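Escalation from tier 1.

The customer reports that the assembly of two entities below gives different structure tokens on two consecutive runs. Tier 1 could not reproduce it. I'm attaching the input and our single run for tier 2 to review.
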Amino acid sequence: MIQLKAIHKSYQTDYNSLHVLKGIDIDIKEGDFVSIMGSSGSGKSTMLNILGILDKYDEGEYFLDGHLIKNLSQKQEAHYRNHLLGFVFQSFNLLAFKTAKENVALPLYYQKVDRKERQELALEYLDQVGLLDWADHYPNQMSGGQQQRVAIARSLISKPKVILADEPTGALDSKTSEDVMNIFKKVNKQGITVLIVTHEDEISRMTNRVIRLRDGIIESS
Amino acid sequence: MIDVDKWQEIFTSIRRHKLRTALTAFGVAWGIFMLVALLGMGQGLQNGIEHDFRDDAINSLWIRAGKTSMPYKGLKEGRNIQFDNSDYDLLRDQFPEIDEISGRFYVSGSQTVTYKDKNMSFSTRGVHPGHQTIENSVMLEGRYILDKDLDAFSKVAVIGKIVRDDLFGKEESLGKQINIGGTIYKVVGVFKDSGGDDEMRNIFIPVTTAQKVYSGGTQLHQLMVSGGNLGLREMQVLESKIHNTLARNKNFDPSDERAVRIFNLAEEFQQIMGLMGAIRGLTWLVGIFSILAGVIGISNIMLIIVKDRTKEIGIRKAIGATPGSIVNMIMQESIFITSVAGYIGLLLGIGLIYAASGVESEYFRNPQVNLGMVIIALLVLIITGTLAGLIPAIQAARINPVEAIKSD
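Tier 1 run:
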């Protein structure tokens, strides 16, 4: 599903160049449940951004579901993000002025799905994360755990092949963290590849495979 | 097809920045209002001036005798020039391009005009038949002075509407006899003139009769000709040819501009119309710049809104929004605000012009907004709305989702 071959990435600052990823090789199979661990500065966020087609890499090759992700137009990037990937962020990143239902339905808007169908699907996915009753609430009326579940529903509605989660439990207490992880487990059981970036061992322990990053190279996988 | 979601996005965004949007919208509304108001007022000015010229045939030359200012062929300067019938005949015979021609003999002073027991004072002028066209007099009843009146030295009079109203009241005036300074005339016609009340206080009699009755010999005080369909250049040529012909006939230096003064109404009209064109140009300039100021305001506010929404746009991009859809979102909001605000400004402008449409004064009457102006104003609106949204929209499309999502 995901293949990274000798990926290099540097950030240019005014005075020097920061070599963040120094040749990353990873092969993640379809349906895998993987966590990526590393201290801050290890390059795990950069790697996730490259995997999420939010950032470009300098060298190497990245295949997502068989497509080479390189030199794409912004429109193509948007298309792959929309159809193959689902994002879950540490800070949830829901749109504050939209209800839970509208937030969940948003990716389908960009797939030009009919309005009515969008709303029905949104309710269906909210039901899956146990928030059907909260459909018409706004993010600021919900707890962190609930918001993250809405975000997960939003990432799932476009039926992606891969879910990319950046510290999804970072802002949650351990009890809600577990709830969220259980949802990820459930999602993974449906055959969706799940990648979680985390620095918590309890979280990585719940995944099937742990990739450890250190100073821009893979320490173990 | 109405895209409910797009409109929802626009309204949500506007609702989140109510005051900001209202203030900006006011800028655009004001711009369009100014444009429409200025254009309408400009039209009013033009109407006023055109109306002012309606008094006389626009294509006419008014020729007055003056005093020579240069010595000529042994004659001293300072000589009075006096027109007579020979000048009238000369011009009439020599210039086939002249459409109508008339001399004028002013019966000196205001004559007492008597009908029954009423005595009033009106000015009386001896004229040729061509005088009617040149003065733009419109007959209300009866007829004007005719050639046969001149031949027969008839004692007939054509009176202005006000003369009739004052002398006759509701009584029938045609065929009645009036006494002008001791001589009896028969009223044969009543005219009106758009030049105003003063023009309608005149009495016209055959020029030959006037010369004879008031011992004018063959004197004429003034000559006037109209050029029919001649253009401005041809009128100017005619003007100088007439000047030269009169110079020969009256023995003065052809370059002596004071001996005979010719007032070219066509030239005057053209000059004023040229001025009007300049005013109109200026009006557009001021109007367009007011709108531009409004548009820059909108552009500015949209940039701020984009900045405000950086994170949101980043999230949208992360979940699959294309740059095109982001551009669309911002542009539509901009065009929407501009259109609504502009439309309000347009309505207010038209309202003002309508309110002022009754105004009639010298040089200003009946301001108007025509369809062409409205269409152009609307086009300006849509174009400016698009331009206003363009830069912020491109800015929005460039937002990097990674950085946007991190930002707070």
